[in-house]
Protein backbone atom coordinates (compact mmCIF):
# COMPACT_ATOMS: atom_id res chain seq x y z
CA UNK A 1 0.00 0.00 0.00
CA UNK A 2 1.58 3.30 -1.01
CA UNK A 3 1.79 6.25 1.35
CA UNK A 4 -1.17 7.97 -0.30
CA UNK A 5 -3.46 5.20 0.84
CA UNK A 6 -2.32 4.66 4.42
CA UNK A 7 -5.06 2.99 6.45
CA UNK A 8 -5.90 2.14 10.05
CA UNK A 9 -7.55 -1.17 10.92
CA UNK A 10 -10.97 -0.85 12.56
CA UNK A 11 -12.12 -3.11 15.39
CA UNK A 12 -14.29 -5.13 12.95
CA UNK A 13 -11.34 -5.95 10.68
CA UNK A 14 -12.06 -3.42 7.91
CA UNK A 15 -9.56 -0.67 7.05
CA UNK A 16 -10.20 3.09 6.93
CA UNK A 17 -7.91 5.45 4.95
CA UNK A 18 -6.36 7.95 7.36
CA UNK A 19 -7.07 10.96 5.14
CA UNK A 20 -10.65 11.61 4.06
CA UNK A 21 -12.29 14.14 1.76
CA UNK A 22 -15.15 15.99 3.47
CA UNK A 23 -18.17 16.94 1.35
CA UNK A 24 -20.09 19.36 3.57
CA UNK A 25 -20.73 22.65 1.77
CA UNK A 26 -22.73 25.74 2.59
CA UNK A 27 -25.85 26.51 0.58
CA UNK A 28 -23.81 29.07 -1.41
CA UNK A 29 -21.71 26.33 -3.05
CA UNK A 30 -23.29 25.19 -6.36
CA UNK A 31 -24.24 21.49 -6.27
CA UNK A 32 -22.22 20.78 -9.42
CA UNK A 33 -19.10 21.95 -7.61
CA UNK A 34 -19.54 19.12 -5.08
CA UNK A 35 -19.43 16.58 -7.93
CA UNK A 36 -16.48 18.28 -9.63
CA UNK A 37 -14.43 18.62 -6.44
CA UNK A 38 -15.13 15.05 -5.31
CA UNK A 39 -13.88 13.87 -8.72
CA UNK A 40 -10.78 16.05 -8.34
CA UNK A 41 -10.19 14.58 -4.88
CA UNK A 42 -10.35 11.02 -6.23
CA UNK A 43 -7.99 11.98 -9.06
CA UNK A 44 -5.61 13.51 -6.50
CA UNK A 45 -5.51 10.22 -4.57
CA UNK A 46 -8.27 10.51 -1.95
CA UNK A 47 -9.97 7.15 -1.42
CA UNK A 48 -12.02 8.03 1.68
CA UNK A 49 -15.11 10.16 0.95
CA UNK A 50 -17.15 11.48 3.89
CA UNK A 51 -20.81 12.24 3.16
CA UNK A 52 -24.04 12.66 5.15
CA UNK A 53 -27.77 13.03 4.57
CA UNK A 54 -27.56 16.33 6.50
CA UNK A 55 -25.29 17.81 3.80
CA UNK A 56 -28.07 17.41 1.19
CA UNK A 57 -25.63 16.50 -1.57
CA UNK A 58 -25.40 12.69 -1.52
CA UNK A 59 -26.58 12.55 -5.16
CA UNK A 60 -23.71 14.81 -6.23
CA UNK A 61 -21.16 12.78 -4.26
CA UNK A 62 -22.57 9.57 -5.75
CA UNK A 63 -22.30 10.97 -9.28
CA UNK A 64 -18.61 11.73 -8.71
CA UNK A 65 -17.85 8.24 -7.36
CA UNK A 66 -19.75 6.55 -10.22
CA UNK A 67 -17.99 8.72 -12.79
CA UNK A 68 -14.55 7.74 -11.42
CA UNK A 69 -15.53 4.05 -11.37
CA UNK A 70 -16.83 4.25 -14.95
CA UNK A 71 -13.70 5.97 -16.28
CA UNK A 72 -11.50 3.31 -14.68
CA UNK A 73 -9.76 5.59 -12.14
CA UNK A 74 -10.98 3.41 -9.24
CA UNK A 75 -12.99 0.27 -8.54
CA UNK A 76 -15.81 0.35 -5.99
CA UNK A 77 -13.66 -1.55 -3.49
CA UNK A 78 -10.96 1.16 -3.71
CA UNK A 79 -13.36 3.77 -2.31
CA UNK A 80 -14.20 4.05 1.39
CA UNK A 81 -17.51 5.91 1.54
CA UNK A 82 -19.03 7.14 4.80
CA UNK A 83 -22.53 8.50 5.32
CA UNK A 84 -24.55 9.35 8.40
CA UNK A 85 -27.97 8.83 9.96
CA UNK A 86 -29.58 12.19 10.70
CA UNK A 87 -31.39 12.99 13.95
CA UNK A 88 -34.90 12.91 12.38
CA UNK A 89 -34.45 9.17 11.64
CA UNK A 90 -33.46 7.94 15.11
CA UNK A 91 -36.66 5.94 15.66
CA UNK A 92 -35.40 2.34 15.20
CA UNK A 93 -37.91 1.56 12.42
CA UNK A 94 -36.61 4.57 10.42
CA UNK A 95 -32.91 3.66 10.51
CA UNK A 96 -32.75 1.09 7.71
CA UNK A 97 -35.11 2.98 5.34
CA UNK A 98 -32.97 6.09 5.87
CA UNK A 99 -29.80 4.17 4.95
CA UNK A 100 -31.55 2.63 1.92
CA UNK A 101 -32.44 6.10 0.66
CA UNK A 102 -28.85 7.21 1.20
CA UNK A 103 -27.60 4.24 -0.84
CA UNK A 104 -30.01 5.10 -3.65
CA UNK A 105 -28.77 8.69 -3.71
CA UNK A 106 -25.12 7.58 -3.65
CA UNK A 107 -25.83 4.88 -6.30
CA UNK A 108 -24.09 2.33 -4.06
CA UNK A 109 -25.06 -1.13 -2.79
CA UNK A 110 -23.40 -0.49 0.57
CA UNK A 111 -21.54 2.21 2.46
CA UNK A 112 -18.22 1.37 4.05
CA UNK A 113 -19.18 3.25 7.21
CA UNK A 114 -22.52 4.43 8.56
CA UNK A 115 -22.58 6.75 11.59
CA UNK A 116 -25.17 8.08 14.01
CA UNK A 117 -24.49 11.72 13.09
CA UNK A 118 -25.49 13.32 16.39
CA UNK A 119 -26.82 11.86 19.66
CA UNK A 120 -29.67 14.40 19.95
CA UNK A 121 -32.94 13.14 18.38
CA UNK A 122 -35.36 15.36 16.46
CA UNK A 123 -39.00 14.71 15.59
CA UNK A 124 -39.28 12.55 12.44
CA UNK A 125 -40.37 14.20 9.20
CA UNK A 126 -39.05 15.71 5.98
CA UNK A 127 -37.59 18.85 7.58
CA UNK A 128 -33.94 18.54 8.54
CA UNK A 129 -34.39 21.00 11.42
CA UNK A 130 -38.07 20.62 12.39
CA UNK A 131 -39.39 23.62 14.33
CA UNK A 132 -42.67 24.49 16.01
CA UNK A 133 -44.72 27.65 15.37
CA UNK A 134 -42.49 29.55 17.84
CA UNK A 135 -39.33 28.64 15.94
CA UNK A 136 -38.14 26.17 18.59
CA UNK A 137 -36.60 22.85 17.53
CA UNK A 138 -38.93 19.87 17.83
CA UNK A 139 -36.83 17.52 19.96
CA UNK A 140 -37.45 13.81 20.35
CA UNK A 141 -36.24 11.28 22.93
CA UNK A 142 -34.92 7.99 21.56
CA UNK A 143 -32.75 5.56 23.53
CA UNK A 144 -29.24 5.55 22.05
CA UNK A 145 -29.03 1.78 22.56
CA UNK A 146 -32.21 1.25 20.52
CA UNK A 147 -30.75 3.34 17.66
CA UNK A 148 -27.54 1.29 17.90
CA UNK A 149 -29.43 -2.02 17.63
CA UNK A 150 -31.02 -0.76 14.41
CA UNK A 151 -27.54 0.19 13.15
CA UNK A 152 -26.31 -3.34 13.95
CA UNK A 153 -29.12 -4.74 11.79
CA UNK A 154 -27.93 -2.56 8.88
CA UNK A 155 -24.48 -4.10 9.22
CA UNK A 156 -25.95 -7.61 9.38
CA UNK A 157 -27.94 -6.85 6.20
CA UNK A 158 -24.73 -5.86 4.38
CA UNK A 159 -25.92 -2.28 3.81
CA UNK A 160 -23.02 -0.90 5.88
CA UNK A 161 -19.65 -2.63 6.20
CA UNK A 162 -18.89 -0.84 9.46
CA UNK A 163 -20.94 1.21 11.90
CA UNK A 164 -19.94 3.98 14.27
CA UNK A 165 -20.99 7.23 15.90
CA UNK A 166 -20.30 10.94 15.61
CA UNK A 167 -20.30 13.73 18.22
CA UNK A 168 -20.65 11.26 21.11
CA UNK A 169 -19.02 11.97 24.45
CA UNK A 170 -17.39 9.36 26.68
CA UNK A 171 -20.57 8.71 28.66
CA UNK A 172 -22.58 8.10 25.49
CA UNK A 173 -19.93 5.76 24.10
CA UNK A 174 -19.99 3.82 27.36
CA UNK A 175 -23.79 3.48 27.11
CA UNK A 176 -23.34 1.66 23.81
CA UNK A 177 -20.30 -0.34 24.93
CA UNK A 178 -22.10 -1.52 28.10
CA UNK A 179 -25.35 -2.35 26.29
CA UNK A 180 -26.55 -5.88 27.18
CA UNK A 181 -26.27 -8.11 24.11
CA UNK A 182 -23.97 -5.70 22.23
CA UNK A 183 -23.18 -7.29 18.87
CA UNK A 184 -20.78 -4.74 17.35
CA UNK A 185 -18.76 -2.00 19.02
CA UNK A 186 -18.70 1.36 17.27
CA UNK A 187 -15.61 1.34 15.04
CA UNK A 188 -15.12 5.09 15.35
CA UNK A 189 -16.31 8.35 16.85
CA UNK A 190 -16.21 11.28 14.42
CA UNK A 191 -15.81 14.52 16.35
CA UNK A 192 -14.56 18.06 15.90
CA UNK A 193 -10.83 17.93 16.51
CA UNK A 194 -8.01 20.36 15.71
CA UNK A 195 -5.13 22.04 17.60
CA UNK A 196 -7.54 24.39 19.44
CA UNK A 197 -9.69 21.38 20.49
CA UNK A 198 -7.30 18.45 20.54
CA UNK A 199 -9.68 16.02 22.31
CA UNK A 200 -6.75 14.36 24.10
CA UNK A 201 -8.91 12.81 26.86
CA UNK A 202 -11.54 11.51 24.43
CA UNK A 203 -8.73 10.20 22.18
CA UNK A 204 -7.16 8.29 25.07
CA UNK A 205 -10.54 6.83 26.02
CA UNK A 206 -11.31 5.79 22.43
CA UNK A 207 -7.89 4.19 22.01
CA UNK A 208 -8.43 2.22 25.24
CA UNK A 209 -11.64 0.80 23.71
CA UNK A 210 -10.17 0.19 20.22
CA UNK A 211 -12.36 2.94 18.72
CA UNK A 212 -10.80 5.17 16.07
CA UNK A 213 -11.17 8.93 16.47
CA UNK A 214 -12.07 10.65 13.18
CA UNK A 215 -11.48 14.42 13.10
CA UNK A 216 -13.84 16.80 11.33
CA UNK A 217 -13.03 20.50 11.29
CA UNK A 218 -9.39 19.40 11.32
CA UNK A 219 -8.40 22.80 9.91
CA UNK A 220 -10.66 24.55 12.39
CA UNK A 221 -12.28 27.11 10.13
CA UNK A 222 -15.69 25.89 9.07
CA UNK A 223 -18.59 28.34 9.44
CA UNK A 224 -21.85 26.43 9.69
CA UNK A 225 -25.26 28.05 9.37
CA UNK A 226 -26.12 26.84 12.87
CA UNK A 227 -23.88 27.22 15.87
CA UNK A 228 -20.67 28.85 14.65
CA UNK A 229 -19.63 32.30 15.80
CA UNK A 230 -18.48 34.41 12.85
CA UNK A 231 -15.88 36.08 15.09
CA UNK A 232 -14.25 32.75 16.03
CA UNK A 233 -10.44 32.69 15.73
CA UNK A 234 -9.04 31.35 12.45
CA UNK A 235 -6.86 28.37 13.36
CA UNK A 236 -4.73 28.53 10.21
CA UNK A 237 -3.74 32.13 11.07
CA UNK A 238 -2.18 30.94 14.35
CA UNK A 239 1.42 32.25 14.50
CA UNK A 240 2.73 29.01 16.05
CA UNK A 241 1.36 26.95 13.16
CA UNK A 242 2.65 29.60 10.75
CA UNK A 243 6.19 29.39 12.15
CA UNK A 244 6.12 25.59 12.08
CA UNK A 245 4.87 25.60 8.49
CA UNK A 246 7.79 27.85 7.52
CA UNK A 247 10.23 25.55 9.29
CA UNK A 248 8.97 22.47 7.42
CA UNK A 249 8.41 24.37 4.14
CA UNK A 250 4.72 23.36 4.22
CA UNK A 251 1.43 25.18 4.77
CA UNK A 252 -0.23 25.61 8.21
CA UNK A 253 -3.03 23.32 6.92
CA UNK A 254 -0.57 20.50 6.22
CA UNK A 255 1.02 20.91 9.65
CA UNK A 256 -2.44 20.73 11.31
CA UNK A 257 -3.32 17.60 9.33
CA UNK A 258 0.04 15.92 9.95
CA UNK A 259 -0.41 16.53 13.68
CA UNK A 260 -3.63 14.49 13.63
CA UNK A 261 -2.25 11.60 11.60
CA UNK A 262 0.71 11.22 13.95
CA UNK A 263 -1.70 10.96 16.90
CA UNK A 264 -3.41 7.97 15.25
CA UNK A 265 -6.43 10.05 14.24
CA UNK A 266 -8.20 9.84 10.87
CA UNK A 267 -8.42 13.38 9.48
CA UNK A 268 -11.12 14.76 7.18
CA UNK A 269 -10.26 17.74 5.05
CA UNK A 270 -12.54 19.75 2.80
CA UNK A 271 -11.66 22.11 -0.01
CA UNK A 272 -13.27 23.42 -3.17
CA UNK A 273 -9.95 24.60 -4.56
CA UNK A 274 -8.14 22.24 -6.95
CA UNK A 275 -4.64 23.26 -5.86
CA UNK A 276 -5.44 22.80 -2.16
CA UNK A 277 -7.12 19.45 -2.80
CA UNK A 278 -3.90 18.24 -4.44
CA UNK A 279 -1.72 19.92 -1.82
CA UNK A 280 -3.47 18.09 1.04
CA UNK A 281 -1.98 14.82 -0.29
CA UNK A 282 1.48 16.16 0.67
CA UNK A 283 0.62 15.33 4.29
CA UNK A 284 2.29 11.94 3.67
CA UNK A 285 5.58 13.51 2.56
CA UNK A 286 6.91 14.75 5.91
CA UNK A 287 6.98 14.03 9.65
CA UNK A 288 6.71 16.33 12.66
CA UNK A 289 9.34 15.66 15.35
CA UNK A 290 8.05 14.95 18.87
CA UNK A 291 9.01 18.43 20.11
CA UNK A 292 6.81 20.01 17.40
CA UNK A 293 3.94 17.70 18.36
CA UNK A 294 4.29 18.90 21.99
CA UNK A 295 4.23 22.55 20.88
CA UNK A 296 1.01 21.96 18.90
CA UNK A 297 -0.47 20.12 21.91
CA UNK A 298 0.12 23.37 23.80
CA UNK A 299 -2.23 25.26 21.46
CA UNK A 300 -5.26 23.44 22.90
CA UNK A 301 -7.86 25.79 24.38
CA UNK A 302 -10.92 23.48 24.30
CA UNK A 303 -12.45 25.77 21.70
CA UNK A 304 -15.36 24.46 19.59
CA UNK A 305 -16.31 26.00 16.27
CA UNK A 306 -19.42 23.81 16.15
CA UNK A 307 -21.02 24.11 19.59
CA UNK A 308 -24.58 23.01 18.60
CA UNK A 309 -25.94 25.17 21.43
CA UNK A 310 -29.41 25.09 19.84
CA UNK A 311 -29.70 21.51 21.21
CA UNK A 312 -28.30 22.28 24.65
CA UNK A 313 -31.52 21.51 26.53
CA UNK A 314 -31.73 17.93 25.23
CA UNK A 315 -30.76 15.13 27.66
CA UNK A 316 -28.44 13.65 25.00
CA UNK A 317 -26.67 16.96 24.29
CA UNK A 318 -23.04 15.76 24.15
CA UNK A 319 -20.91 18.84 24.77
CA UNK A 320 -21.76 19.65 28.41
CA UNK A 321 -19.49 16.85 29.64
CA UNK A 322 -15.76 17.50 29.84
CA UNK A 323 -15.23 14.91 27.08
From TrEMBL:
Keywords per UniProt: NADP, Oxidoreductase
Binding-site positions, substrate: 117
Family: Belongs to the aldo/keto reductase family.
Presence of keyword Lipid metabolism: no
InterPro entries for this protein: AKR, AKR1C, Aldo/ket_reductase_CS, NAD(P)_OxRdtase_dom_sf, NADP_OxRdtase_dom
Superkingdom of the source species: Eukaryota
UniProt-annotated catalytic positions: 55 (proton donor)
Lineage: Eukaryota, Metazoa, Chordata, Craniata, Vertebrata
One BP term from GO: progesterone catabolic process
PANTHER family with a match to the protein in the record: ALDO/KETO REDUCTASE (PTHR11732)
Residue stretches making up the NADP-dependent oxidoreductase domain: 19-300
Name of this chain's protein: Aldo-keto reductase family 1 member C1 homolog
Annotated site (Lowers pKa of active site Tyr): 84
GO molecular function: 17-alpha,20-alpha-dihydroxypregn-4-en-3-one dehydrogenase [NAD(P)+] activity
Keyword check for Oxidoreductase: yes
Pfam families: Aldo_ket_red
